[in-house]
Write a structure and sequence with these properties.
Helices cover about 45% and strands about 0% of the residues. The longest helix is centred in the middle third of the chain and has 23 residues. Helix 1 crosses helix 3. It is mostly helical and about 90 residues long. The chain has one domain. It contains three helices and no strands.
């Protein structure tokens, strides 16, 4: 998606205010860092509950007010569940 849009593109996310290419690039980076974190924790032997219970990593805090992310644990659990159903966690 980033390759298909420019700095003038307006993104309507449906979850937050209107966004732009810079915001999307930051969001992709946050997702990639979160996925890498969950992969490391899986490799260290942590359970889905141990990974999900702390909620989102601190890198997400500037993006969301606490009251807007009531399901942080659900999000982290979903990342865990997705990664544990792949054949290669190093992809």
């Amino acid at each position: 998606m980033l390759d298909r849009i420019n700095d003038s593109t307006v993104i309507i996310t449906g979850h937050t205010e209107m966004s732009n290419r810079r915001d999307l690039a930051q969001y992709v980076q946050l997702l990639n860092e979160t996925i890498a974190l969950v992969r490391r924790e899986i490799a260290a032997g942590k359970t889905g509950k141990e990974i999900a219970d702390p909620g989102l990593p601190k890198i997400w805090k500037p993006w969301f007010a606490p009251e807007t992310v009531p399901s942080e644990r659900d999000f982290m659990h979903d990342v865990y569940a997705t990664l544990t159903h792949t054949n290669d966690l190093n992809q």
